[in-house]
Amino acid sequence: MKTNQEKVELLYEKAKEALNNSYSPYSKFKVGAALITKSGKIYTGTNVENASYGLSMCAERIAIFKAISEGEKDFETLVVIGDTEKPISPCGACRQVIAEFGVDEVILTNLKKDFKVMSVEELLPYGFSGEELDDKNTNNR
Hints:
Elements: H1 4-19, E1 31-37, E2 42-46, H2 59-69, E3 75-82, H3 92-100, E4 105-110, E5 115-118, H4 120-123, H5 130-139
Parallel strand pairs: 3-4
Antiparallel strand pairs: 1-2, 1-3, 4-5
Keywords: Hydrolase, Metal-binding, Zinc
Cofactor: Zn(2+)
InterPro entries: APOBEC/CMP_deaminase_Zn-bd (IPR016192), CMP_dCMP_dom (IPR002125), Cyt/Deoxycyt_deaminase (IPR050202), Cyt_deam_tetra (IPR006262), Cytidine_deaminase-like (IPR016193)
């Protein structure tokens, strides 16, 4: 069993490897992510751009969507890395996806190994969830 430090180091290295696969010819802004499930499987993602920027996809969402597409639904830790001065911060869309799928812990970092550990609630206070949809449907009955 890996210690928390060993797990974070492994996820950091996996996210850094993913960052190196980034397809970011327009922004030149490379991002990598590594997600570990509660069953111990690791899924990685990197940002993939498109000349039509709206069709681009972030590293965090790719890692989560890969895991979901393989039947995983219980997530422990997501590490996100970028070549930034401070630990990288996910965009709003990624924060919403992270919240939707209940990642327990999000670790933001950079190539200098500065780390910031956050909960989903810290990343996305007052986030939108399926509960709001359930409440609306209940009120219409």
